[in-house]
What does this fold into?
Amino acid sequence: MLLSLAVLLLFQCLGEGISYLFRLPVPGPVVGMLLLLAFLIARPRAAEVIEGTANELLRHLSLLFVPAGVGIMVSASALKGSVVAIVLAIIVSTTLSIAVTALVMRALMRRHGAEQER
It folds into this structure.
């Protein structure tokens, strides 16, 4: 479990470094996740090593939102003028996320169905 956590943190740090060095407009953890995705595509067996830790992190995912929630509560007075924009951004991003997830799921189901017919 420690090895897989170290691997996940390594990819996050790599993403942070690449994002910083190349001054990318994308957050470092996102770059790290893309690097991790490329790594897992190149070496599918590595997913077995990471799977246990990833599942544990997902089980406790709600705890990771606590610092962000506290930060929003502390900064509430500064955010008052942007409430409409924030709510609109949340609605649009949630709708887009659901739509993209549905499209990807549909494509994967078609692909899986085509593979089973062979």
Observations:
- The longest helix spans residues 83-117.
- The two ends are 38 Å apart (CA to CA).
- Residues 1-76 form one domain.
- The chain is about 80% helix and 0% strand.
